[in-house]
Amino acid sequence: MFLLMSSAFVRTNVLSTCKAKLPDKFVTSLTNLINYSLQNDMNNSNIQQEKQRFMNGLWPQKTIELSELQHVGENVFALNGIELPADDKFTSSYDQTLGINSSQRVMVKEASGETGLTNYRNYINVASNLQKPKSVVIIASPENHQLAEIVPIVDEYISPTVFFDFAEMMADETGYQISDVRFNNAGKPRITVVYTNPNGRTHRFGPGEDFMMDGFYLTWTPSNVELGHYYERLVCSNGQTVKEERKDNTVYKLSANEIHSIIGRVKNKSFFAICVEQFGKLLKRASSSRISLAEMKRAQKILIAENVNAEKAEHLIPYAEVCSSYQNAGLYDAKKEHLMKGEGTIWDTYNVLTQFASHTTIWKPNDHRRIAIMNGAVGLLKREPDIVNYLDIY
Prior knowledge:
Distance between the termini: 75 Å
Oligomer: single chain
Organism: Prevotella brunnea
Radius of gyration: 24 Å
Structural class: alpha+beta
Number of strands: 14
Protein name: DUF945 domain-containing protein
Strand content: 15-25%
Helix content: 40-55%
Number of helices: 12
């Protein structure tokens, strides 16, 4: 019965949850903040059309206590006495939610068989939920009618309707305009709303390094809302830009306190001032730091993790080629990759990742893999370099 639930069922339950969580003023006029890749301010008509598109494509989902979901055997689970088939990914995620790793799973199965593994899963589920019951969102595929995703709830379930209202409130309270909204509504849902200052200023960190630094974004999943800075970097004389995002804060419920805290943080003048100062320091350090072989490997993995094929990833970040050069010279040591100089600086590699994420044509403009790669690139920038350049008179 769960597997045949319509999106309308999900929307009805989401709305009722929303009204129970927030005062009426937080659940009012927003009808949509979903848009594939609108680069200009969205009018109300756009918003309503795109919200409908998002909700219609949202996979069936239900919020439950984890202890209610029992493992029956193989990829089959039971909820309220109804057996539900699942795919391999769901079963693996279920184990991770329980704290069961792959080696434990193999060990138990070898010792006690499939029945023993089922009993072990159910025992861990009950035991881990005795003192503090966990809630999860389970998501089913409308295509194969199987459980496909499980999302642990850290504090409280955050409905998309609550998030939409909050997103509109942010625009009203801060004076920033919604310039871009991206989403994924198949499988594990995710929405990113980008805000732009209508009077935005350009910050120059060096020749050819011009950035718009005073934008921000909100990203929603069923378990959290993320606040971060949004950068637009001018990369060409014709005005072409690269868009980058950096996380600042994450909340795991949207009560009035969290809402006022996030709004207050963005309205604080130091929010963007600190961003500019910190980014300038990171840029300077990355520009003067030679990338290590280990950092090249890490950068290439950022691409491969988002299903960029290995050949393309190697073309962008030639980790294997540099490895081969060290091997041919008899100098390669897998344990010392962090000490081996790679190709170019950390800033060079950062640019490769962000420009690919912005301009590749293999994905739709709203694809969240672009954001994941950009976040990975910023992570590389923020990490302490393996190789730090310094002056040496010898």
